[in-house]
Structure formats: structure tokens, C-alpha cells
Amino acid sequence: MHALLAFGGLPGGMEWILIVLVVLIFFGAKKIPELARGLGKGIREFKDATKEVKKEIEDGEKAVKE
To answer: What is the pTM of this model?
Structure first.
């Protein structure tokens, strides 16, 4: 939280445009969909893993209560 305040908060409109342009320059327009798919896949795997851990904890709690 303190880091956001130190840098003046979240990026605004012009900053986002600059970020998008830099990403386009570094990766190219053809590579961006591939990067987005990889990011989405990673997020999905992370969510699945957290659900699995949560389920294991709940199952462990049920076993202790019995």
C-alpha cells in the first residue's frame, strides 16, 4: 500500500497507453494472444490449486471432528 502512495497511485489513462505501446514493441502483435493465453492458463491453474488445498483442509477438519 505504501508503494502505491509513493508512486502516486495506480496508472492513469496515458500511462496505460504507454504500457500497451511498450508491450507491443517488445512482443509484437502476434505474440500478445499467446502471452494472454498463457497468463489465463496460469491463473486458472492457481485457482484450481487453491480450491484443492482448501478442500483438503476442510476434509482434514471433518476427520478431526469425527
So the answer is: 0.55
